Amino acid sequence: MSSRRAVLLLLLALAIALTVAAGGPPSFTWANDGVRVAHPWAQAMAALGAALALGAAAAGGRRRVFQLAAGAAAVGLVGLAAHRLAWRIDAVETGIHERSLAGGVSLRWADVVAVVPSDGSVTLQGKDGRTLVIATTRFEPDERVRLERTIARRVKEAAR
Questions:
Q1: How many CB atoms within 10 Å of residue 60?
Q2: Concatenated DSSP letters for 122-153?
Q3: How does DSSP classify residue 118?
Q4: What per-residue confidence (pLDDT) applies to 4?
Q5: Which of 47, 148, 156, 45 is nearest to 89 (CA)?
Q6: Is 53 helix (H, G, I), strand (E, B) or coil?
Q7: DSSP classification of residue 62
Q8: Are 97 and 124 in contact (CB under 8 A)?
Q9: Which of 46, 114, 119, 123 is surrounded by the most beta carbons within 10 Å?
Q10: 65, 51, 63, 64: which is closest to 11 by C-alpha?
């Protein structure tokens, strides 16, 4: 095996390992006023590291198809890193707010008219027609239950 091919294989192995590390669940910070859910910085940095490894592999590859595939995967991983850095949910005393690359959605607890849990998400519907869908597929089961209970308690308290 040539040294060029060995370096490419090492870069691809590094990219795979870092991609797995970037795909972990978000972290929950529980406080007296509620919960904050966000992805750890390490996940975003792992995605960026994987993108760099794939970019280096693409630059060192000889076949055009490999260069295009590795380059596209690197761009996707940069997008994943940006998502990991931007995404956050705050379910605090005043209401719930989700921030992402697409913008933010806020609902005061008193404005929530329905909470609909399903297998992979929790949907909150506001009086004014706004809807907040929280994807929970990557949450640990006990954290998901705690979040659902917190939301239900806050909505019930606001309705009094």
A1: 15
A2: EEEEETTS-EEEEE-TTS-HHHHHHHHHHHHH
A3: -
A4: 85
A5: 148
A6: helix
A7: -
A8: no
A9: 46
A10: 51
